[in-house]
Amino acid sequence: MMLALDIPRNMSVSAQVAFALGLLVLTRLVWRFFSPLRIYPGPLLAKITHLWRAAYVYHGRIDLNHLELHRQYGQVVRVGPNCLSIVDPNLIRVIYNTRKPWKKVGEDRLLSSSE
Questions:
Q1: Which residues contact 101 (CB under 8 A, 6 or more apart)?
Q2: Cα 76 to Cα 19: distance, rounded to the nearest angstrom
Q3: Where are the alpha helices (DSSP H) in the chain?
Q4: β-strands 83-86, 76-80: how paired?
Q5: What is the pLDDT of residues 10-42, one digit of tens each?
Q6: Helix (H) and strand (E) counts for the chain?
Q7: Three-state SS for 53?
Q8: Domain-by-domain residue ranges, the chain?
Q9: Which residues pair with 80 in a beta bridge?
Q10: What does DSSP assign to residue 36?
Q11: What is the pTM of this model?
Q12: Which are the contacts of 31, defined by CB distance < 8 A and separation ≥ 6?
């Protein structure tokens, strides 16, 4: 019995690869248009894949890239198919529903503990 997503065994390797790639593209497109995150702005590729960030991560510049994206798109930016970057600390309570606010460790405290 063959399920809807089973790859038939008599298909050539190239046909299996094409089938797998087609299925991947189809799931990404469905996710792009029906994701609850579709309302958040961000780069076009961020709606489909995380791969666009690989060069920034590799070169150690992802933080600068995120800052630029926030300048361009605002406080909430979609940086992946299921990933948001948020700069507004007031949204932490809304998103995570925390009972106590998060405390940010001050730079002076970090510097004094490392000396």
A1: 92, 93
A2: 35
A3: 13-34, 54-58, 62-73, 91-96, 107-114
A4: antiparallel
A5: 778 888 888 888 888 887 777 767 778 888 899
A6: 5, 2
A7: helix
A8: 13-105
A9: 83
A10: G
A11: 0.57
A12: 81, 82
